[in-house]
Amino acid sequence: MATSKLQALWNHPAGPKTIHFWAPTFKWGISIANIADFAKPPEKLSYPQQIAVTCTGVIWSRYSMVINPKNWNLFSVNVAMAGTGIYQLARKIKHDYATEAEPAVANE
């Protein structure tokens, strides 16, 4: 049973013998790097970078469900990219626009 499943994966049109497997697999590095940036202070985040990550995730998630063969690895990595990008954008927007300015301490 396990052998037949491995053989089916190996021979799949989006399996390890094709670029359709390896491109999304390496794309996980972008999502992992974005997750690592959760520890960064919001003022160090970049709007253009996070917008690009979010848009790429949203657009390619949709596209990965339209193309043949269905590529679930491509779909999942792009959902992760969209999710991490949206989260980072929300952190940045909250920091830039929703936090109140801290009152200055009077020096006596």
UniProtKB/TrEMBL annotation:
Chief subcellular location equals mitochondrion
- Keyword Plastid on this protein? no
Q: Name one Pfam family in it.
A: MPC
Domain of life, per lineage = Eukaryota
Q: Name one GO cellular component term.
A: mitochondrial inner membrane
User: What's the stated role of this polypeptide?
Assistant: Mediates the uptake of pyruvate into mitochondria.
Please state what the protein is called: Mitochondrial pyruvate carrier
Can you name the source organism?
A: Cardamine amara subsp. amara
